[in-house]
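Weekly sync notes, structure subgroup
Attendees: PM, AL, DS (notes)

Item 1: joint prediction request from the bench team. They want all two components modeled as one assembly rather than separately. Inputs as received:
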Amino acid sequence: MPLNIKQLVDYVDKNDWPFTQGHRLCPGCNAPMVAKWATLTAKALGYEPVVGAATGCLEVSTTIYPFTAWNVPYIHNAFENVAATITGAEAAYRSLVNRGKVDNKKVKFIAFAGDGGTYDIGLQALSGAIERGHDFVYVLYDNEGYMNTGNQRSGSTPTGADSTTEPVGKAKAGKLQFKKSIVDIIAGHEGVYAATASTSEPMDFMKKMEKALEFEGPAFIAVLAPCVRFWRIPESSGPEMTKLAVETKYWPLWEYFMGEYKVTKKPRNFKPVSDYVTKLGRFNKLLKRDDSAEVIEEMQKYVNAKWDRLLALEEISKDKPLRTKI
Amino acid sequence: MPNKLAVTGAKAVAIAMKQINPDVVAAYPITPQTPIVQYYADFVADGLVDTVMVPVESEHSAMSAVVGSAAAGARTMTATAANGLALMTEIVYIAASYRLPVVMPIVNRALSGPINIHCDHSDAMLVRDSGWLQLFCEDHQEAYDMTLIATKISEKDDVLLPTMVNLDGFITSHGVDIFEPLDDGIVKDFVGKWEPKYPLLNIEKPVTLGSLDLFDYYYEHHMQQEAAMKKAYELLPEVFEEFEKISGRKYDFLDLYKMEDAEYVMVVLNSTASTAKYVVDELRDKGIKAGLLKPWVFTPFPKKEIKEALNGKKAVVVLDRAMSFGKEAPLYSLVKSALYDAEQKPKMGSYIYGLGGRDVTTHQLHDAFEDAINDKLELNEQKYLGLRD
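Output from the run, pasted for the record:
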């Protein structure tokens, strides 16, 4: 049953939010939206979420001892191991249910991590957890950098963005590499549900979250979620920027299910990627350089090719799953 | 169970684990620990235990999954060695600070580099300040017994600290020896049921575990870990006594061999104690009053017991199978510090031996005793047994 607005309203009318206010994330941060929507979706559908978090903004700002913004069971272990930690809890749940020590209560394990803990240091643990087929949902809030340590580059930082470990300078236009295509890496595990989402499309995200929760196996959702501070954008503009990211093909919305690709939003008209780049202050230094047009041109070619490729993948994989079991 | 089994030390440990039948075992293979988890995987595959086994992709993830599982409320175990333990170390500290009563056999092996797969204690010494209890085992029987004892002490209400059970790589893990297992039912009663107080899986009372612990609480939480360590020191004798009741085997903080009237004492951990006992007997045959002190418990370090045992002895040689570069060897420095306020301080000597699996001979141990007997000990000089010129 697809989750509808009425169910959500009913839930928040009658219950505490699973992720509450009172946390200390920056004004305008998009990470709490992701945490709130993900846990709310689970609760409204009757699941009991047990949450794991990787070290990062969301973690440090929501659990400053002795306070907590979490109304559901929550565990943080370290930076690179949220996938392993949550799968340990999931294994414990299976074992304790088997042995009759814990009631079978539709418990669902959700891991939250930023891009540093996912694209970089946490990739191994995540890959292992997915390969082992644990039943959990991994939600990545992708702000494209190490933000709570002060805007360092990550494997997700886009070309030309200014970061403190690869700044745009006189000799070099910041980070020269493209960002990793994390959902393709996850899709490479094959027995998985994986999707992109954006803070500009909450209903799309919740629908994907529902699919991820229903899937009895590993699921992964990458949500583009701006850090307003280091993206150098107005506090109120996070979702507006991610909307542009979708409209410019910078961040296409698509999903993968056991081998089948599906593009979940196909805008009729696309905007040029320069519309997105010029709105974000983190590209200001790039835009002042003589080679900025070339960098943007490269980016445009890349997003076009990526989009065409996605459509082709959708076409060739339609009704042709690679696997029927994890 | 038959009265006696002739198996490898790894299998003896795996049998103890099988009888405990933990809820979850998460593990990654590493020589010479691998046979423990292999035997355990066989038990799972054959349906002899109903443990959920999580064969992770690295030791870092093994310890991370152990933390997730133990926090969820499951009785959880893993095992490792050397570089595996080094890779886990970040999370080894976290497991102790979350007060998770995990049991982990460590099959002691040299740390890289250069790479070496054989026995020494550099791995155990790497994590000596991590907040885990550390038990050391001379042979198969002790490795089996201590695995059961570890489960009991870790889960004591006021302790709730993880425990490492150390056994020597290859020497104990792969050598075949006779040991006496207890009956399944007796083990089951001894370890009892594990009932966690604040499990993550209690949906009705959600807990937040692993908060950001800033300058206003971190310090106090560390003091609580220290208090738990003191409690473990208090409660260990009770657990040893309970174990003696079911097994007839008596353990204590220290294994004291011919120490009553000893004048020259050797202090050593794990399997080398067997060789040392043989050497003590040889010296005794010659009328020399030799003795051996082997700590079963290394953390919490039994300072008082060591002082009592060594006060008034003529000379003490401490043998370390690990180095602390630029400082005194770990066991030596602790024994020396335990004797600081002894009324009659013995002469002391520090000896490094057996690094990277270098063979330990009776001749070497005789050499150390000879120095003690001939008054040739140097308090502040580290000597090396069996080192090639």
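Discussion: The CA atoms of residues 97 and 104 of chain A lie 6 Å apart.
Action: AL to compare against the crosslinking data before next sync.
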